Amino acid sequence: MSDRRRINGPGGPTNPPVYDEDLIIKPVRTRNNNDVRPFYLKTGVTPSASGSAYLEIDQSTGSGFGMKFTCTVHGPRSLPRSAPFSPHMVISTHVKYAPFATRQRKGYLRDASERDLSIHLETALRGAVIADRWPKSGVEVVVTIVEGDVSRQTTIDEGHEEWNTMSILSGCITVASAAIADAGIDSVDVAAGGVAALVQDEGIGKEPVLVMDPSVSEHETVLAACCVAYLPARDEITNLWYKGSSCGSHLATYQSLVGRAVLASKGAGKAISVSLNEAALLA
After folding, report:
1. How far apart are CA 207 and CA 253, in angstroms?
2. Fewer CB within a 10 Å sphere, N or C end of the chain?
3. Are strands 90-97 and 137-147 parallel, antiparallel or unpaired?
4. Strand order through the sheet with 209-212
5. Which tens digits make up the pLDDT trace of 67-87?
6. Which Gene3D superfamilies has this protein been placed in (predicted)?
7. Cα–Cα distance list, 100 to 24, 97, 110, 199 (Å)
8. Can you give the residue ranges of every domain in the chain?
9. At residue 248, does pLDDT exceed 60?
């Protein structure tokens, strides 16, 4: 009697399959240094949540990559009885890559970079939300990165992972602020994320230049970068993340980077206002 559960191999010799490697063409920046990528923002995409938003940043010309974010806000709601008393609203942020967001599949547990993004996002939102109006309450902000800017493995191999994280943080701040406004949580202003970088491309006599909304795969070397969470109406910065080494006068370069990042965030702030106004008209 034959064993029906056994899967017999082929009778003759076989050759293992050979797959061609993916051809990755290095993109080239075609935008002006002061131009940002077009993006789409919509609120109220998750009816079961108190507030929600979806942000899609268009891919750069010829790069084939873009960024997509979703955010849901749950609360404010009462804290459990076991929690200590808090005179302010407790903000809990959770940033996570979707498993399919990058070419190198992500795990279900958050890694160090995702926890770092959550801390920066919490700092940015804490300066905008009026937490005194909800004592003994908590709100949970969950941001899911549906699609990353570039292949995560490519950024790790080229050493650009930290620079790419700044662009991700800028999108997280923008989509989370829109979701909080959609939830009706009182804030002094709507925070918007912006990022600028000091880059240097290959070539003889190429000088470092300042660019807004950089895509790390489009540049040969990133010398410094700055990501801000900006309140347009109050002209205040709630979170600032600067990293890198500058050329020439350090103070002048630092101020120029912050100024370009603030300028980039103003465009995102206008998009949030337009999206919220459209949602109010449809309500």
Report:
1. 14
2. N
3. parallel
4. 209-212, 192-200, 221-231, 236-244
5. 899 999 998 988 888 888 888
6. GHMP Kinase, N-terminal domain (3.30.230.70)
7. 18, 8, 14, 29
8. 39-282
9. no
Q: Which of 182, 171, 141 is nearest to 264 (CA)?
A: 171
- Site of tokens 């992500």: 106
Q: How far apart are CA 278 and CA 266, in angstroms?
A: 19
pLDDT in tens, 166-181: 889 999 999 999 999 9
Q: What is the pLDDT of residues 136-145, one digit of tens each?
A: 899 999 999 9
- Residue 165, amino acid: T
> Which numeric CATH code is attached to 39-282?
3.30.230.70
